[in-house]
């Protein structure tokens, strides 16, 4: 309850500060996150890390077990959405980072990435339509494993299929949903990347959000550790 109240108020203020931004739902990687090229080079190692983690899937927390504010979208249909958080609002989860050296190395060199996680979506799992509250970050997905029939992400009415090795940068304040109709898990790397802005107020707002979220992440880190 405290998490919902504090983060809800903070996010409302953040929405007001970023109200003037007018960019499309899906953004150009080279223009907004050129460092993604390094992730493509790391793809085989990132995939191996994710598959090794999934071998012990029972010890990976469900998203709503990490953050109760995600219960509506994470626990909506009895199928699991598990997350290995390696970085949360700027706070490195050291126990998980030790299991993911390739990703941890990239994060150490790219501080503009505030949150990083390996995401595991059960067969049949549907993440219902929802939207993020904060335009100060951009969401990056790198697909590491896509079963057949293919999973997809729909952003603002545009359906984007997940393809292994495929990457996407998008604004999660637009309505979006995900479905994995396959018989195996969809596995992806998820990053939150600082949006490039010029206004001082927006830069300060981002720092405030990360500072507040980072403090909460430190207090609740135990929930994020892989057993």
Q: What does this entry look like structurally?
A:
- This protein is α+β, with helices and mostly antiparallel strands and 227 residues long.
- It has a single domain (2-224), classed as Jelly Rolls (Sandwich), CATH 2.60.120.
- Helices cover 37% and strands 26% of the residues.
- It contains 10 helices and 11 strands.
- It has helices at 2-17, 29-32, 36-41, 43-54, 63-66, 71-74, 94-97, 101-109, 200-219, 221-224, and strands at residues 26-27, 81-88, 91-92, 113-121, 126-130, 137-145, 152-155, 158-161, 167-170, 176-179, 186-194.
- The chain has a 7-stranded antiparallel β-sheet with strand order 1-9-6-11-4-2-3. It has a 4-stranded antiparallel β-sheet with strand order 5-10-7-8.
- Strand 7 (152-155) and strand 8 form a beta hairpin.
- Helix 1 (2-17) packs antiparallel against helix 9 (200-219).
- It is globular and about 45 Å long.
- The model has no long low-confidence stretch (mean pLDDT 93).
- Belongs to the aspartyl/asparaginyl beta-hydroxylase family.
- It comes from Pararhodobacter aggregans.
- One of its GO terms (molecular function) is dioxygenase activity.
- InterPro entries: Asp/Arg/Pro-Hydrxlase, Asp/Asn_beta-hydroxylase, IPNS-like_sf.
- This is Aspartyl/asparaginyl beta-hydroxylase domain-containing protein.
Write the layout of secondary structure elements.
Blueprint: H1 2-17, E1 26-27, H2 29-32, H3 36-41, H4 43-54, H5 63-66, H6 71-74, E2 81-88, E3 91-92, H7 94-97, H8 101-109, E4 113-121, E5 126-130, E6 137-145, E7 152-155, E8 158-161, E9 167-170, E10 176-179, E11 186-194, H9 200-219, H10 221-224
Antiparallel strand pairs: 1-9, 2-3, 2-4, 4-11, 5-10, 6-9, 6-11, 7-8, 7-10
Helix pairs in contact: 1-9
């Amino acid at each position: 309850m405290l998490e919902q109240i504090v983060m809800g108020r903070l996010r409302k203020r953040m929405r007001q500060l970023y109200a003037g931004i007018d960019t499309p739902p899906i953004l150009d990687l080279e223009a907004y996150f050129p460092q993604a090229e390094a992730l493509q080079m790391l793809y085989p190692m990132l995939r191996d890390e994710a598959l090794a983690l999934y071998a012990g899937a029972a010890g990976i927390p469900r998203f709503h077990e990490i953050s109760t504010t995600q219960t509506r979208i994470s626990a909506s249909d009895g199928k699991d959405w598990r997350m290995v958080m390696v970085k949360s609002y700027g706070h490195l989860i050291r126990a998980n980072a030790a299991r993911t050296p390739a990703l941890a190395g990239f994060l150490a060199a790219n501080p503009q990435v505030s949150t990083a996680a390996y995401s595991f979506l059960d067969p049949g799992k549907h993440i219902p339509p929802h939207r993020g509250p904060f335009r100060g970050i951009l969401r990056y997905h790198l697909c590491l494993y896509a079963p057949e029939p293919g999973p997809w992400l729909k952003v603002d009415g545009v359906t984007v299929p997940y393809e292994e090795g495929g990457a996407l940068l998008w604004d999660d304040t637009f309505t979006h949903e995900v479905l994995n109709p396959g018989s195996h898990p969809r596995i992806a790397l998820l990053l939150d990347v600082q949006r490039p802005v010029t206004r001082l107020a927006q830069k300060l707002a981002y720092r405030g959000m990360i500072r507040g979220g980072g403090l909460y992440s430190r207090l609740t880190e135990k929930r994020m550790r892989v057993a």
